[in-house]
């Protein structure tokens, strides 16, 4: 609790200032107050938490699962083969030069308002940090340790399992703590541009009605999802990486 006290104090101060400024401006469609946002969340609680939140969570779950599978798989392949590294590393970099907002409408044209247009946006955003960080983590294992294990008769699989993968775990968790908030942004972008349900879709619908509190309500839920996910990842990281100091 003591570790989180500074964040709680600063967050509380910012919320109070936000409430004061919003009441001074008194234009809720431009800057809704935190209390107005909470009231709006309560007003639309059934739609937000039983329809739109599950839709967004499904996109996030599928998108992150695919990003993990593809990102870790490609990182292992690049670590195992210099040819694969030379072939795919530049493509990874190039994939980040294309604006997501330009591709998202194309995905909607390809897949319509189905879940896959949003999943592809999520994968495109989260795949890069997972692949690059995991690859760098695998490369971070000390060469002399690898040679020592091989000298004692260890197989390449044993070197990977006992040395390279544990060395990559800190980088992998770092990439996940970056990828999870990015995946939420990706899902929201996809839902803004074309969806029939989801928190991003709800926010866009409220925007057309000039309902500022309604626009912010799903954003608050998305932010809470990101914070809770990162906290869970930090707990898992401490459980799995016991050799690193806090």
Explain this structure.
It is found in: Cell membrane. The chain crosses the membrane at residues 47-76, 88-113, 119-138, 172-195, 215-236. Belongs to the binding-protein-dependent transport system permease family. It comes from Kurthia zopfii. Residues 53-237 form the ABC transmembrane type-1 domain. The chain has 246 residues and is mainly α. It has two domains: 1-29; 32-240, MetI-like (MetI-like fold, Orthogonal Bundle). Helix content is 83%, strand content 0%. It has helices at residues 5-25, 34-43, 45-80, 82-95, 100-111, 115-139, 143-151, 156-193, 199-208, 212-240. Helix 3 (45-80) runs antiparallel to helix 4 (82-95) and helix 3 packs across helix 9. The longest helix is centred in the last third of the chain and has 38 residues, at 156-193. It is globular and about 70 Å long. The two termini are 15 Å apart.
Structural class: mainly alpha
The number of strands is 0
CATH class of the largest domain: Mainly Alpha
Determine the CATH superfamily of the largest domain.
MetI-like
Q: N-to-C terminal Cα separation, in Å?
A: 15 Å
Poorly predicted runs are none
Q: Output the radius of gyration.
A: 22 Å
The average pLDDT score comes to 81
Largest sheet: number of strands, sense, barrel closure: none
Per the CATH scheme, the topology name of the largest domain is MetI-like fold
Secondary-structure element sequence? HHHHHHHHHH
Number of helices: 10
Global outline: globular
Kindly report the oligomeric state of this protein. single chain
Strand content: under 5%
Q: Which CATH architecture of the largest domain is right?
A: Orthogonal Bundle
Number of domains: 2
Helix amount: over 70%
């Amino acid at each position: 609790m003591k570790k989180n006290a500074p964040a709680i104090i600063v967050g509380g101060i910012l919320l109070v200032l936000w409430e004061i400024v919003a009441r001074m401006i008194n234009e809720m469609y431009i800057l809704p107050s935190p209390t107005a946002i909470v009231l709006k969340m309560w007003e639309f609680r059934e739609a937000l938490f039983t329809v739109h939140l599950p839709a967004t969570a499904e996109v996030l779950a599928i998108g992150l699962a695919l990003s993990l599978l593809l990102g870790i798989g490609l990182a292992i392949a690049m670590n195992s083969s210099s040819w694969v590294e030379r072939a795919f590393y530049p493509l990874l970099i190039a994939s980040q030069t294309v604006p997501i907002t330009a591709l998202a409408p194309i995905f909607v044209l390809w897949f319509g308002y189905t879940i896959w247009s949003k999943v592809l946006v999520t994968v495109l955003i989260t795949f890069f940090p997972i692949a690059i960080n995991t690859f760098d983590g695998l490369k971070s294992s000390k060469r002399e340790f690898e040679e020592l294990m091989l000298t004692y008769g260890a197989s390449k699989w044993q070197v990977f399992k006992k040395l390279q993968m544990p060395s990559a775990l800190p980088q992998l968790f770092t990439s996940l703590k970056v990828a999870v908030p990015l995946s939420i942004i990706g899902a929201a972008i996809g839902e803004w541009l074309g969806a029939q349900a989801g928190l991003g879709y709800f926010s866009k619908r409220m925007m057309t009605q000039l309902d500022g509190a309604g626009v912010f309500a799903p954003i608050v839920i998305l932010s809470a999802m990101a914070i809770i996910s990162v906290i869970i990842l930090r707990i898992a990281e401490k459980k799995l990486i016991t050799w690193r100091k806090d």
